[in-house]
From TrEMBL, chain A:
Keywords: 4Fe-4S, Electron transport, Iron, Iron-sulfur, Metal-binding, Repeat, Transport. One of its GO terms (molecular function) is 4 iron, 4 sulfur cluster binding. InterPro entries: 4Fe4S_Fe-S-bd, 4Fe4S_Fe_S_CS, FTHF_cligase-like_sf, Helical_ferredxn, LUD_dom, LutB/LldF, LutB_C, NagB/RpiA_transferase-like. Residues 75-298 form the LUD domain. This is L-lactate dehydrogenase complex protein LldF. GO terms for biological process: lactate metabolic process. Residues 400-474 form the Lactate utilization protein B C-terminal domain. Residues 314-381 form the 4Fe-4S ferredoxin-type domain.
From TrEMBL, chain B:
Residues 109-202 form the LUD domain. The lineage of its organism: Bacteria, Bacillati, Actinomycetota, Actinomycetes, Micromonosporales. InterPro entries: FTHF_cligase-like_sf (IPR024185), LUD_dom (IPR003741), NagB/RpiA_transferase-like (IPR037171). This is L-lactate dehydrogenase complex protein LldG. Transmembrane segments: none annotated. Signal peptide: none annotated. It comes from Allocatelliglobosispora scoriae. It holds the Pfam family LUD_dom.
């Protein structure tokens, strides 16, 4: 069954990306934020000489989970149920929303507090709650920013990455009820303080919380949430009822496996040695925390992804967002251009697989195949490999197009070294006059049939000499 | 078919075959000469926590000095009573009934022990043991003072997790005060959890 919900782009990627490319404020915000996090990640990763071994173990644990998923899910269900939780199953987004909405309605509550969760965004739970008159209150600072702005998230980890501090200050001043304007500066500490005051009463009065989970441990029935601000702890501790929406691929076999992921995740996501707070709970603990605990296990297209031998590695993803932060395409267009709640390199391979062929067909082309995402990925998802695989499927499914003809021609040329050298020489002859007019190394607009290719990218002119030619000249 | 059976059937049909071996060679020993207490202190200071060191005899005095501007001390049921012997600040011992509103009083400070501490990442693990209490106690007050015995300090996360007596108890791993990286991806301390974290390293 293919996945549904907020994973299908409304516009093809090139159309959605175009206005973003023209937004220089957006590009500045993105560049500053992604570069800050990239540098931090490199520093903390370099502290661990065993990083590669951790990545290999992380990938292997997830592959083992994918091979044993049905048994592990049943094991999780039995352990969580024995510990006092109620486990529900959902085939798709609508079914998952239906279960969560019914559970919330049965408590009689009018509002729920929420911990940031990709799964609930994916299934469109906020919209479903609003439709029955329940107000979902996002409690993560960045989610709150996005919710106050009436906007949608643009990054997995930092949904408001496209806002800078001045814009956030303006937004709080205009939209946050009862905000103290005198104390509100654009200092991040003042902004965090405003969010604390705004949400504190909500936490104390909330009767229902909704979360996702970073990990679900089969052996014990334990759920784990990794966070920073303490809003997660508030939601997991104070309300009477806790509803957690969990993708089936979040399973880990044993508590011991957490040791790998609690090292991989924080360093890859925020570049910290450890995130400020990690909470783990197993069903109901009498006298401590929610006494009504529900877990909704969601497929929503994941079983289809699992069936693809090349594409299934996308299910290893732990949503750290490292691949977004190193991606040259993401850095220029931001998360919204990808349409789905999963942006960036992982979104380019996960969204089209979850939603099935047809929808999201342009997403696997939203990449330069530079490979930075694979290098950064803590569970070694070979994103370029999956991109190429999906492109082939999409091209095979489509009829003849100029792109397809060009790709075919390129394949023919690339198969033979003599043809390749001849093509390069021809390209240089074609490029020579262009060097005289525009920039010395790139051209803005290519003639048809390559007009669309060059609509949003500069095309480098071929080098004056190939490496092979230089080598034979120097060494001959 | 109900949702559970349908999802399981689909996953059975889709999954890859063959066993996967996981190699567990990712847990290096501490480098020779590593001083775990020094390492933990360095990490905690990096998170902008406050760190003190003392022995058991000095602990009541050190705690008293940290509590001078507290309005009330929140106490888990199993906190050793000698620890707070040096202070006359009002105590609020949790019998399981303290409400978030009571814990949110201005100037409230909670004092706890911990289950285990991981030096390499600067992480304190609470497992709701008697000297730590319910999760809400260490969440709502604005200051948390946590006493860590030196024999509770281990090097890495794998050892820390393996030393937990019962991983199904509610676990809270704490690495510094509450913080956010949501504004321009820079860490800022102080959002919803305690904005001030003080660790007292209890030397033998
Ligand atoms: S694909 Fe890898 S790098 Fe990207 S979010 Fe997932 S785990 Fe992180």
């Amino acid at each position: 069954m293919t996945g549904t919900g907020n994973i299908v782009a409304a516009l093809p990627f090139p159309t959605a990306a175009k206005p973003k490319l023209a937004d220089s404020q957006l590009r500045d915000n993105l560049r500053r934020a992604t570069h800050t996090i990239r540098d931090k990640r490199l520093r903390t990763v370099a502290e661990l000489p065993e990083w590669e071994r951790l990545r290999l173990a992380g990938a292997a644990i997830k592959d083992d989970v994918l091979a044993r998923l049905p048994e592990l899910l049943v094991e999780f269900e039995a352990a969580a149920t024995a510990a006092g939780a109620t486990v529900h199953w959902a085939r798709d987004a609508a079914e998952a929303c239906g279960i969560a909405v019914d559970l919330a309605l049965s408590t009689g509550t009018r509002e729920v507090v929420k911990i940031k969760s990709m799964a609930t965004q994916e299934i469109g739970l906020n919209e479903a709650l609003e439709a029955v008159g329940i107000t979902p209150i996002e409690t993560d600072l960045a989610e709150l920013i996005v919710q106050l702005a009436g906007d949608t998230p643009s990054h997995i980890l930092v949904p408001a990455i496209h806002y800078n501090r001045h814009q956030i200050r303006e937004l709080f001043a205009r939209r946050m009820p009862g905000v103290d304007l005198d104390a509100l500066t654009d200092d991040p500490a003042a902004l965090a303080e405003a969010a604390r005051r705004h949400l504190r009463a909500r936490f104390f009065s909330a009767r229902v919380a909704i979360s996702g989970a970073n990990f679900a441990i089969a052996e014990t029935g334990t759920l784990v949430v990794v966070e920073s601000e303490g809003n997660g702890r508030m939601c997991l501790t104070l309300p009477e009822t806790l509803i957690s929406v969990v993708g089936v691929e979040k399973i880990l076999p044993t508590v011991r496996d957490l040791d790998v992921f609690l090292q991989l995740l924080p360093r890859s996501s925020t570049g910290e040695r450890m995130n400020p707070y990690t909470s783990a709970w197993t069903g109901v603990t009498p006298g401590d925390g929610p006494q009504q605990v529900h877990v909704i296990l969601v497929d929503n297209g994941r079983s289809d992804v699992l069936a693809d031998p090349v594409g299934r590695q996308a299910l290893r993803c732990i949503r750290c967002s490292a691949c977004l932060n190193v991606c040259p395409v993401y850095e220029r267009v931001g998360g919204h251009a990808y349409g789905s709640v999963y942006p960036g390199p992982i979104g380019a391979i996960l969204s089209p697989q979850l939603s099935g062929a047809g929808a999201n067909a342009t997403l696997p082309f939203a990449s330069t195949l530079c490979g930075a995402c694979f290098e950064a990925c803590p569970v070694r998802i070979d994103i370029p490999e999956v991109l190429v695989h999906l492109r082939q499927e999409i091209v095979a499914a489509a009829g003849a197009t100029p792109e397809r003809a060009a790709m075919r021609a390129a394949a023919w040329v690339l198969r033979d070294r003599r043809r390749y050298s001849a093509a390069l020489r021809a390209a240089r002859r074609f490029a020579a006059p262009l060097r005289l007019v525009g920039r010395p190394d790139a051209v803005r607009h290519l003639p048809w049939p390559l007009t669309r290719w060059s609509a949003s990218r500069d095309t480098p002119l071929p080098a004056r000499e190939t490496f092979r030619e230089w080598w034979s000249r120097e060494r001959a | 078919m109900n949702a559970r059976d349908e999802v399981l059937t689909r996953l059975r049909a889709a999954r890859p075959s063959g066993a996967v071996t996981v190699s567990r060679d990712y847990d290096p020993p501490a480098p020779d000469g590593t001083d775990l207490v020094e390492l933990l202190t360095d990490r905690l200071l990096d998170y902008r926590a406050t760190v003190r060191r003392c022995d058991a005899a000095a602990l009541p005095t050190v705690l008293a000095s940290l509590l001078t501007d507290a309005s009330v001390v929140v106490v888990p049921p199993g906190l050793p009573s000698a620890w707070l012997g040096g202070t006359d600040v009002a105590q609020l011992t949790d019998d399981g009934g303290l409400t978030p509103g009571q814990l949110d009083l201005p100037g409230a400070v909670v004092v706890t022990g911990c289950a285990i501490a991981c030096a390499r990442t600067g992480t304190i693990i609470l497992d709701a043991g008697p000297d730590q209490g319910r999760r809400v106690l260490t969440l709502v007050p604005d200051r948390h003072i946590c006493v860590v015995r030196v024999d509770q300090v281990v090097y890495g996360i794998p050892e820390a997790l393996s030393r937990l007596t019962d991983p199904t108890r509610p676990l809270t791993m704490i690495s510094g005060p509450s913080a956010t990286s949501d504004i321009e991806l820079n860490r800022v301390e102080g959002v919803h959890g305690p904005r001030h974290l003080t660790i007292i390293l209890l030397l033998p």
